[in-house]
């Protein structure tokens, strides 16, 4: 058993279920006694954890069909994290000092089942890159949309954690033109200058369909959709014959103050789906078990060669985590949002 550990640890709890979008006042940072691992457990000192939109759905309680439970008042938040094993009982498959990933973020120290921890090697040059949600974009673009050389690809929510990688991945897979969407002129400029997007649809400036028709007059071959709503409708209007649409998010509904995070209704033209032979599929990593490992290997190679960037912002300190979630929901960050402990 490792010594010199602090007697307490801090964790973020849901103080009250909000009526609408969660804000920082709906959370509280609580100090609790540091637990000791029992058989089959380890104690992990978290170094980083991911702030992700799915928390909005868990807090809203609309979790039907999801593999994760709803969050109630008093519950500790959770999510992807990377940390170091600091205590483990005799016979544990994990060693003290080993770096692991797990799903018990939002706390400084996590008492985790050893079976729920994944040991990390040096495939990725920076441990924080293991928190990238890029496997969803990679899996959708390789398993569902199957990007081909010369394809015209449209990525909605391009400045988010998934979208900021999706455009780069599409290009590396051979796309001929990559168009993104965002609601911020500053983010639009960064998508082009830093991430290699050819053009950007600026949401709110004029109808998305009009901008997309101008930027891709011959239509689009692939949609990687993080948003749904108006942008999915516009993409369908621009679809070429045999276009492949992969849905990886539904932020238009998930982050709506009028909804609880578990629905994103949208009216689409079924006749156009038929006439154009468009495939429309939602991506689930559980349906493609090999995609995550394949992504990690390619991601590591691309990072080391400089062919891809991992856009993210690091927020220092657990005390700032609730505000980081509020700011992410408000679209104030570019790329993934990571709390650094």
Automatic annotation (TrEMBL):
Record-annotated Enoyl reductase (ER) domain positions: 20-339
Gene Ontology molecular function, alphabetical: oxidoreductase activity, acting on the CH-CH group of donors, NAD or NADP as acceptor
Annotated keywords: Oxidoreductase
Record-linked Gene3D superfamilies: Medium-chain alcohol dehydrogenases, catalytic domain, NAD(P)-binding Rossmann-like Domain
SMART domains, per the entry: PKS_ER
Record protein name field: NADP-dependent oxidoreductase
Source organism per UniProt: Kitasatospora indigofera
Lineage: Bacteria, Bacillati, Actinomycetota, Actinomycetes, Kitasatosporales
